[in-house]
Design goal:
Elements: E1 11-13, H1 28-43, E2 48-50, H2 59-70, H3 74-77, E3 79-84, E4 86-90, E5 93-97, H4 101-115, E6 120-125, H5 134-146, E7 150-156, H6 160-167, E8 174-180, H7 187-193, H8 209-216, E9 219-223, H9 241-257, H10 261-270, E10 277-280, H11 285-289, H12 294-300, H13 303-314
Parallel strand pairs: 1-2, 1-10, 2-3, 3-6, 6-7, 7-8, 8-9, 9-10
Antiparallel strand pairs: 4-5
Helix pairs in contact: 1-2, 2-4, 4-5, 9-10, 9-13, 10-12
Length: about 325
């Protein structure tokens, strides 16, 4: 099963590669881990690998670059995606956002150097920057594309209105919006059915974002799609009653469909007509392999099974 770009819909998220989130250097063990992860992802048909300049203080990109350097022909077989726009521990601030022209150019060039490649297939603007001038973004992206360093542009953590404002100043179409979406993190879903319900006031997800992306053909990429292993890796005594019910249902459905709970969990996301592309972030090759049947599960999952998992996750009926 492929998305609009012709590749499989599963994405591998590289945030866990590279060692600790500090200034310590990486070594052979971290490079070997990245190589094993890449092999596992390729083994289930994953072609797009998702990065960000800040992941593991740049080490996620760096170890991946080492894998590319030692694997002849690998770059031509995959697509690379990275993000810029978040600054950590700079200018006396723990965190701030920067989508200025200068920052975009600087950060992309840094990512290319660490990844040991001449271009990325997709650049995502990592988070909304309140000081962003869409014209500056358009100028920076236009330069990067003219230089052949970026082929497509997307965003992350943006609303439909923010995407529309930015698109108005761009000559290239925005192709993706990466959001946290899972059976555990369901505000993207529940906000769509809780219009005119008091319960809906408890969800901050902006109305119309999914609809805008669907209408404009913008791929929705779901990070946190495996819910950090909450349903498929945690011990039963660590789970709430609703979480335990979901875990048991995933096991039951996996048995009935001769697959794994991970594939059922991702298949639930992919069943949505927005054609969501899950980002798989585990660094365990066996768990990556366990996601192999997600697209098949999405195709075969019944409406009753899909709603049953949603109801179980809520812990009560849908209003």
């Amino acid at each position: 099963m492929t998305n609009a770009n012709g590749r499989g819909r599963l994405i591998y998220g590289c945030m866990g590669l590279g060692g600790p989130w500090d200034g310590t250097s990486y070594g052979a063990a971290e490079i070997d881990q990245a190589g094993a992860v890449v092999d596992a992802a390729l083994g289930i048909g994953i072609e797009l690998f998702d990065h960000a300049d800040i992941y593991r203080s740049g080490k996620s990109e760096a170890v991946f670059g080492e894998v590319l350097a030692r694997s002849r022909g690998l770059r031509e077989k995959i697509q690379l995606q990275t993000k810029c726009g978040i600054r950590l521990g700079e200018r006396g601030l723990e965190t701030h956002y920067d989508l200025s022209r200068e920052a975009i150019l600087e950060r992309v060039n840094g990512s290319l150097k660490r990844l040991q490649t001449d271009y990325v297939d997709v650049l995502l603007l990592h988070r909304p920057d309140p000081l962003m001038d869409p014209r500056e973004v358009g100028d920076a992206v236009g330069q990067l594309m003219a230089e052949g360093k970026v082929r497509q542009l997307g965003v992350s953590n943006m609303s439909g209105a923010q995407i529309a404002l930015l698109q108005d100043q761009l000559e290239t179409p925005l192709v993706a919006n990466q959001l946290e979406m899972s059976l555990l993190r369901r505000d993207w879903l529940e906000s769509t059915v809780l219009v005119n319900h008091a319960e809906g006031l408890g969800y901050s997800f902006p109305h119309g974002t999914l609809e805008h992306c669907m209408a404009k053909g913008i791929e929705l990429q779901a990070y946190g799609s495996l819910a950090q292993g909450r349903y498929t890796g945690a011990k039963s005594e660590e789970l709430s009653p609703a979480e335990l019910a979901v875990a048991e249902m995933l096991e039951q459905l996996a048995g009935e469909k001769d697959t794994t709970p991970e594939s059922v969990l991702l298949g639930w996301l992919m069943k949505h007509p927005a054609r969501i592309s899950p980002v798989v972030g585990t660094t365990h090759p066996t768990r990556i392999a366990a996601c192999a049947d997600a697209a098949v599960v999405a195709k075969e999952m019944t409406r009753a099974e899909w709603y049953g998992l949603w109801v179980a996750a809520r812990g009560n009926n849908i209003p």
